[in-house]
Amino acid sequence: MSDQGHLEEKIEQIYDEYYRDVYHFLICFTGSRNEAEDLTQEVFIQVLKSLSSFNRQYRLKTWVLTIARNVAVDHFRRSKFTSIFKEGFFTGLVSKEQNPDEVLETKEQKEVVHAAISNLKPNYRSVIILRGINELSIRETADILGCSEAKVKVDYFRGLKKLESNLKFDLEEGTEHAK
């Protein structure tokens, strides 16, 4: 098999194995299926361009998700959008068995959580998504973010505290409007 054929086979294998992880991370980070699809393509283009420089001492998944994180942060910096969780991602997760009131309440709760997460600093948001949503280990998260495990623990703790604070503020604000 030629080197070109081997490269194509390797890229196809990487894509098949890590597409879902990359797409899930990016949809959580951007909140938009369209943006996540575009960025997922950009991630795998970067993987293709950089595959020859991959350091085999690291896990491939960690390397690919690091690229995904960098692409997401670059996109975030370029577009400077204010809301990380826009319509789309969580709207499709509503159970068909709920009555309309429950659906509305669930949607409102998700919107409050989305808004609270979108107000987090990007490094807290990244840690919350990787640890809390993607359920990666502290070590994997540290490798992806290029920081120490201690920093991941601290940022995760602080991010959760800030998220809790944002949620309490939103809930208190909501109850005042209800009076």
TrEMBL record:
Name of the protein described by the UniProt record: RNA polymerase subunit sigma-70
Family statement: Belongs to the sigma-70 factor family. ECF subfamily.
Matches recorded under SUPFAM superfamilies: Sigma2 domain of RNA polymerase sigma factors, Sigma3 and sigma4 domains of RNA polymerase sigma factors
PANTHER family reported for this sequence: RNA POLYMERASE ECF-TYPE SIGMA FACTO, RNA POLYMERASE SIGMA FACTOR SIGV
Superkingdom assignment: Bacteria
Domain called RNA polymerase sigma factor 70 region 4 type: residue spans: 112-163
Cross-referenced Pfam families: Sigma70_r2, Sigma70_r4_2
A biological process from GO: DNA-templated transcription initiation
MF (Gene Ontology): DNA binding; sigma factor activity
Alphabetized UniProt keyword annotations: Sigma factor, Transcription, Transcription regulation
Cleaved signal peptide residues: none
InterPro entries for the chain: RNA_pol_sigma-70-like, RNA_pol_sigma-70_dom, RNA_pol_sigma70_r2, RNA_pol_sigma70_r4_t2, RNA_pol_sigma_r2, RNA_pol_sigma_r3/r4-like, WH-like_DNA-bd_sf
Domain RNA polymerase sigma-70 region: 14-80
Coiled coil feature spans: none
